[in-house]
Amino acid sequence: MKKIIFSLLVLLFSCMAGTPVLAARVIKLGVVTKPGSAQNIVAEKFKELLESRSGGRYTVQIFHSKSIGNETEILQQIQMNTIQMGVVTVGPFDTFDPIVRVINYPFLFRDNAQADEILDGPLGRIILDDLESVGFKGLCFSENGFRNLTNNKRPVRTADDVRGLKIRVMASPLHKAIWQALGANPTPMPWPIYTELEQGVIDGQENPLWVMVVYKFYEIQKYMTLTRHVYSAHIDVASLMWWNTLSPDDQAMIQEAMREAARFGRRDNRARNAARLALLKEKGMIVEEHPDLASFRAKVAGLKEMKLYREPKVHSLLLKMLEATQ
Hints:
The chain has 326 residues and is of the alpha/beta class.
């Protein structure tokens, strides 16, 4: 009892002296995927860095595995400051701000180095800054990876082989348009999709290699084609409403911790890809490593003239991106 009374007196006198005991500020961060996934690796590294650098003033609570909703729902919660941050795939952003569609333009980036150069440079900054118009503070880009096609119907070597396949896509008008142009039957569907693939509700899906491994798609998908048709980034964002309550020093600390976590995530993802491909083959997937990409490019070449890209700010940035990457 004496110890309890003494502790209460210390707390009381501390407050009276103008040195209140401060509780850690909790940052709620949402990701849709499960531990071990690319989003989670970035989120966990960010948590480690920020909690260490803030001396415990901030703690990061990660909500994973769709525990607070799909990616569209996570973004809505960030807008409202119900949660403060997220590591979210680019695709679902385009219903909030169409400027993000330029990143997912098919066959835009030649390789990882070019994607990093563009997204970490002035053109990428245009996208991050524009997100403020819809309630997000764009911090940086991390990596999902180049997307590849899998299906359980037949080998795919040319774009003609895609015709009629029922392919799951993200809730993104652009991704739907890409697969319509290729002759598939794109079906928007929230994550995860293992059961739908297993039951044959959809024939296939398209994602980076890590997804095939972490979600064990080799158990239910027979064919994979290394199309690399879209470079899929994550946008690491904060609630603008929350961000504007922070001091400049804390903003800088959070920004740098997330940038460092994103760079860590990119390195980690790329270092594992060769082993992932080998594992998928070992597990029995039939992999087409050299598809006729010219046939794919020919069918999606007209997308830049579609309504999706006609909004002035979107069209202007797309033309700059195409010039910078060709």
